[in-house]
């Protein structure tokens, strides 16, 4: 059992690491908050002045703000929907014994190792291009007009590209969870005459709930800050159809070089992300306590 | 301490001393540049420079245009005149040079060697880089925009392209050349949002329609009749005769389409001429004709003026070595070197009179039209009506990057069919007014 002295010693020894980690988080965060209260444009040096909450007022009244907020939520929701349902189906499929299973699993996992910029470029130029893309060629072969995905359904296209990247992750986690299910339980249900769908619904799915929670929590964190795919394919457009909060902050801080406004946007994004995180933890994180 | 350890320590000390001695002899220049063909060619010829200057080593940072601009601007803006800039030579455009020079971020280049021959630089380009009589950046290549068209398709359509076409003729030719079943589109134009993409093209086009960004009191002019005509005509041209997906096509996308023989006409940068006439890259290399950018008879043509230049940040620690490099890379000697290695068509164009006086270069099919286009652009008086700004396809104020990006988004939304032309212009007017108010242009 730990004595009082040994506890103190442990605290002392661990404190440098904790302090370092805290500084590593707090310093940039504090600087962001500080910059967000300044009028600070990189192209006008020496003109920095105290602005109070002006940057925030300006950020919230930006015509692109509402659409960025909606797009961010749609993007997160859409990708989660596709990757979780797709991941469950994929896990069910990969869980079946068949020849070459190992190789297929590897193939399914492959998209996760492709860099987001590379995958976005491939999707944009090889698949979705309305003149030279594979989809356009398919449509023309079938005697239909090619669809210009990135113009006609820009957000859907981005959701598609991002889902393609995250589906393997969900599949892998869910497959691992599925394999930990005791097969005797399923056999017993089968002997009692439970049909396949019911076995899935009442045994497999509840068993997967913790894994699904993990997938949703981890993916949400990353999906709130999707950036590369948007920059490479649509540049936030047409209009602001694919601008999410991250992209809006990028436009303000690195295209307009308005550090103050960009920082204000960054602070707003952090607060919103935390609200989403708390909400998620409350709603579904309970699963993790069990 | 045993002998081995002592020997090892001695050796380390010697190595360290030798290291410092070497470091004092040679200077390493970090050069930030844009990833286009001409710059990559310069990079591949760095050995020629280092052979002449044994004390200077070159380290290249080659980036895509937008990323380059972000990296270089943040580096230069945050280091200012203090001696800790990351880059010793930066590639900057004609938009940045006057703004940066005004902030004291660039080293003046008045003391370049006599053989550099500053007076040989084309006046239109040189003026844009000179502030209060001091040259702040050396032009690497200069460009305007012009019409590139397919001679065979024009002939098939029964039309003839004059050297100086009007917008009406362009519309007529675009309609006549379009053959969508065979994937031939009459006209390819930029649609991708960005101040250096669709806004560059549309601002230049607007100039020839009598439109301007701001009136003399800095009031945005997107609610004016000339802008309405510009945007309506542009949308008609691209939606009826352009390729699908035009709202995401920029310079590179259109270049690929033209090289594949899918565009009847393409109005874009003059530097593209060497790519579309290169038989290794272009399937229509022998069928390309050139004409000046169109006009509406109002006295201004729809062409722009741009130059990529090499400048030295005030925070550089190796200003002298950097000057030697800048002088070399933009010299006549460098031009001759490229001509010898890669042929005259691949020489960086648009910066020196002597190049256009050279009989060898005059044989290049696009040389004449490039020079005429550059001469036709006037950054001091870019529009039909007077304006308080300089710059043909941009407004040379720091706020323009932000405003141009926002306005470009509106134009590309209109091209994608998300908003009407009228709505896009109204939004552009509101956004521009908002940004200008914030920047303190009106009280």
UniProtKB/TrEMBL annotation, chain A:
* Localization in the cell: Cell membrane
Record flagged with keyword Repeat: no
Its membrane topology: Multi-pass membrane protein
Mind listing the UniProt keywords for this protein, alphabetically? Answer: Cell membrane, Membrane, Transmembrane, Transmembrane helix, Transport
Which CDD domains has this protein been placed in?
TM_PBP2
GO CC term (a single one): plasma membrane
A Pfam family of the record is: BPD_transp_1
Does the keyword Aminoacyl-tRNA synthetase belong to this entry? no
Question: Which ranges does the record mark as transmembrane?
Answer: 12-37, 68-94, 106-123, 153-175, 208-228, 259-281
Where does the ABC transmembrane type-1 domain start and stop, copy by copy? 69-280
GO terms for biological process? transmembrane transport
- Sequence similarity: Belongs to the binding-protein-dependent transport system permease family.
Q: What is the designated name of this protein? A: Sorbitol ABC transporter membrane protein /mannitol ABC transporter membrane protein
User: Which species does this protein come from?
Assistant: Paracoccus seriniphilus
UniProtKB/TrEMBL annotation, chain B:
Q: Record's Gene Ontology CC terms? A: periplasmic space
**Which controlled-vocabulary keywords does the entry list?**
Signal
Q: Please state the span of the N-terminal signal peptide per the UniProt entry.
A: 1-23
The UniProt entry's sequence similarity note says: Belongs to the bacterial solute-binding protein 1 family.
Q: Which InterPro entries match?
A: Bact_solute-bd_prot1, SBP
Q: What is this protein called?
A: Sorbitol-binding protein /mannitol-binding protein
Q: Where in the cell is it found?
A: Periplasm
Q: What organism is listed for this UniProt entry?
A: Paracoccus seriniphilus
Q: Out of the domains of life, which is the source?
A: Bacteria
Where does the protein principally reside? Answer: periplasm
